[in-house]
Request: fold
Amino acid sequence: MITVSEAIVRMIDLCQGSQYDICHFLKVWGYAQTIGKQEGLDERTQQILEFTAIVHDIACPSLRKEYGNSPHDLQEKYGPPLVREFYSDAGMDSGMLERICYLVGHHHTYNGVDGMDYQILLEADFLTNAGEQKKYRKVADRFRDNVFRTQTGLALLDSMFREQV
Reply:
């Protein structure tokens, strides 16, 4: 099976030099990896989480090219088929690939969270977005109360953003 490092190299290549896209997915992956390990995820769930974090915004470059932006609903719609193509030769079992596609297809949906991989992806993406865009920092308290559930994610959010709101 493909390694996380190999997936990162593939995704960097897919980003075609977009420093924003590269830095964004690397930060989400880093937070996801850290939160998952601190929260004690089993190895398979950790792998799913990390492989998902790498490709969670895979639809953004093509959406920006076509629409000038990358609305959340379109990311969730167009992401999963791109993920299937991206990981088609990765040697993943179908259950793992389908879970990654599901998570990419829901990474801006905050209700119906059905697993720690999903929960941590939401938290990692928010931490990254809040670091990149002031509008997310302004809603940090609301996200803390309504979205964040892991002890590690809550501690990171408090350390990074609570005093800046």
User: Anything to note?
Assistant: The chain is about 70% helix and 0% strand. The two ends are 43 Å apart (CA to CA). The domain at 4-164 is CATH 1.10.3210.10 (Hypothetical protein af1432). The first helix runs from residue 4 to 14.
